[in-house]
Amino acid sequence: MKPDPSLLEQLDRTWRDPPGLWGFLTTVDHKRIAARYIVTALLLMFLAGMLALDMRWQLSVPENTRMTPQLFNESFSLHGSTMLFLVSVPLMEAMAFWLVPLMLGARNMAFPRLGAFSFWLYFGGVLTLWVAHAIDITPDLGWFEYPPLSGPAYSPGHRADIWAQMITFTEVAALAASVNVAATILKMRPPGMTLARMPVFLWAMLIASIMTMFSMPAVMLVTSMLIADRLVSTQFFSVAAGGDAVLFQHLFWFFGHPEVYIIFVPATGFVSSIVETFSRRVLYGHSVLVLAILSIGALAFGLWVHHMFAVGLPRLGNDFYTAASMAIAVPAGLQIFCWLATIGTGRTWFPTPMLWILGFVATFVIGGLSGVMTASAALDLQLTDTYFIVAHLHYVLIGGAIFPLFGAFCYWYPKATGRLMSERWGKVAFVLIVGGFNLGFFPMHLLGLEGMPRRVYTYPAHMGWDMLNQIATAGSAIAVTGGLVFAANALCSYWRGKPSGADPWGGSTLEWATASPPPAYNIPFTPRVDSLTPMWNGGAPLPALDGIAIDTREVLVSSVTDAQPLYRQKSAGPSIWPLVAALAVSAMFIASIFTPWAIPIGALPIGAALTGWFWPNRPRAKIGALEAAP
Amino acid sequence: MTGTREFAIVGTLSDLPSSASGPRHLVWWGNIGFMVIEGTGFVLAAAAYLYLMTQASAWPPKGDPLPGLLWSGIFTAGLLLSEIPNLWVLRCARAKNLAGVRWGTAAMAVIALALFVPRGFEFAHLGLPWHQDAYGSVVWLLLVLHTVHVVTDWGDTVVLGAWLFTHEVGDDQFADVEDNSNYWTFVVLCWLPVYLLIYWAPRAL
Ligand code: HEM
Ligand SMILES: [Cu+2]
């Protein structure tokens, strides 16, 4: 049955945003919020990519004086911090924000206003870092700022504070997003989508969210301790007063290592979705994939010490972490096996999203191999702080997360815009990016083995590193060109692309059931799910339930394990308060760089904003307080 | 290409209730999420304390006084006793007892406010400033972290309590009271290990 037009109109009236700027500022539509996150993060990826190109230009000839050492320090610090905190993690969250409700056939996230708050706070973090950069307060100590170098004695001024506070912004945003994503996946699944019938994508997002909740408090704690050392003279990291600088490293890497997997695990979700659809068969080894993701999530918390082999920890500690670090190759390998088996046994076709998957597998395997090499404490002592690490980290981050992300972008682009991207230009971009990337970064392994240290602004001529550096620079330039082609393709297709219809790829999961782009209410009815691939029912109508209100914002809440419908929950409408609250929180964060009083004083406007946020819209009490009867 | 998929209506959800309580409620899970985050924060801060303790040759370092037991003891006793009215409010929320949640929440707001008095003295009787040495810093860290939670929940209780009196109370509000009460229990439970660390770990050595 086709839904009645008057029903759709009513739903649209209930769920659409107010028009114009006010609608822009108050929206709680998960799709708009996610789109904002994605556009902002992609712009930042471009800016940070330009910084990278600038650094590569500097390194293309020995003894180059185009950049000063200070400028080079600022460049890699800004590049690394932006790419990790403002690009990779937020992009993964944004994909969850955009897709999770659609894949559940739900009308919005569990906590719509928290979603808006999360974006505004993230945006505050973006402004903190980049406005500070514009006025020349750029952090210059790399993407992890170890004390004592970042402590009050060696880093006067506010560069280190900006870095630390940018982290606070983005982590609060990420934590808020994670609670939202986890609650949505656990409690808002459609009838029939038991845990056993949950797509791998949702598992990946759920596990990444839970990992975020357990790891990000560590970095918030440690950067707060750093700020306190700098602002109110606490002594956490000052050895002279009984503090310990290695404590910083432990806390930082307790977060920093899982962070890599918080980026990688959602990417495995993208890969699973794409592989399934284009292989036209149910994923081979669904439960193996889920278990692999679960064990990666658990193992990731036991590995942080491998970033600290050079610190001089007890011998047994090093051995243990060497073994544990290598163990993570097992679930990662199993996943790759399942994907390849799906591809090999399906009726597979290879449009652009699938090409990205192939690029991912090839690149990630190389990154994994160099990872297993550095996981060995003995070898790592030789390689740490060389270009080998630069190569490794880009192979896993770009190969393991950014390539799947590009694939996901191409795969879901028609759903988001209603148009197809050009396949031809998509392939050109793919070849340029993957080719340029490998050309640019593979030589860095060799440079590392030859001893070229990372984070140096130049190198002497007689070391014999010129040639490899030039290749690296050329490769980077090719990859960045490819990135521009990719972006141009996305932009042009937005206006000129062929209309895609609701389901251009024959996708397996529920987001393909609704129109492209999806309407404000997402889907007219609540679907009922009978299999892992609900869209693959031979083209028959989807079984669905009505009864969720259409004249007020309402969502279905179901039980955690077997998705039994429990009750209908009111869902919050547009509101300016998340933005106001984010502004109040931002004011406190920024002011607390300068004075500790910002915290007690700044708490008052935050409290006021939260009161406005939760202000009841139900009627006033009719029974007076004193005669209230039970 | 393809249009949107057609639907076959196989049933209705209109007879579902419009609210729930306990773990059936969506917000209950959000509350748990934030407890996980903050609980992790406490665990890590405690780990930092233990780490610094194992690195030091004496704990507290030579010359530092031991933290005072009197006011911290009063605070701890008060906090534990506050669980009695708190659990009573929880019961009222589950039983949808309107007068009970109104007056119980108001009482909890007063009790939390009263606890600030011993907490204030507790800070004063730590015996050393935060900037003295790493020991002082980490003790202050734990105490400030916990105090922030008491203050937050107090603010939440005040606002919630006011609205219970001024606005109609339905099932969702009973669920809010339940969440608020669970959160207070969380604040109480987090205190116990922190208390042992701050006051008894240095004495045990
Ligand atoms: C074509 C794209 C890219 C190029 C050419 C590039 C190039 C570079 C260069 C030259 C450095 C400095 C190495 C050094 O002197 O030690 C660097 C560091 C780094 N890059 Fe990239 N990069 C690119 C993309 C990315 C992406 C997408 C990410 C993350 C998702 C990333 C994350 C990092 C990190 C974390 C560092 C370390 C910063 C530090 O040492 O503190 N890069 N990159
Ligand atoms: Cu690691």
UniProtKB/TrEMBL annotation, chain A:
User: Can you cite an annotated GO cellular component?
Assistant: plasma membrane
Domain Cytochrome oxidase subunit I profile span(s) in chain numbering = 21-530
Subcellular locations according to the entry:
Cell membrane
Q: Which residues cross the membrane?
A: 34-53, 83-104, 116-135, 162-188, 200-227, 247-271, 283-305, 320-343, 355-379, 391-413, 425-447, 467-491, 575-591, 597-615
Pfam families for the chain: COX1
Q: Which GO terms describe its biological process?
A: aerobic respiration; electron transport coupled proton transport; respiratory electron transport chain
Asked if the keyword Transmembrane belongs to this entry, the reply reads yes
Q: Which domain of life is it from?
A: Bacteria
Family per similarity comment: Belongs to the heme-copper respiratory oxidase family.
Provide the protein name: Cytochrome C oxidase
UniProtKB/TrEMBL annotation, chain B:
Q: Where found in the cell?
A: Cell membrane; Membrane
Entry keyword Transmembrane helix = yes
Q: Which UniProt keywords apply?
A: Membrane, Translocase, Transmembrane, Transmembrane helix
What's its membrane topology? Answer: Multi-pass membrane protein
Q: Which SUPFAM superfamilies match?
A: Cytochrome c oxidase subunit III-like
Query: Which EC class heads this enzyme's classification?
Result: translocase
Transmembrane ranges, per UniProt, are: 26-49, 69-89, 101-121, 183-201
The answer to whether the entry has keyword Nucleotide-binding is no
Q: What biological process terms from GO does the record include?
A: aerobic electron transport chain
**What family is reported?**
Belongs to the cytochrome c oxidase subunit 3 family.
Could you tell me what this protein is called?
Answer: cytochrome-c oxidase
Q: Which organism is it from?
A: Novosphingobium lindaniclasticum LE124
The uppermost taxa in this organism's lineage are: Bacteria, Pseudomonadati, Pseudomonadota, Alphaproteobacteria, Sphingomonadales
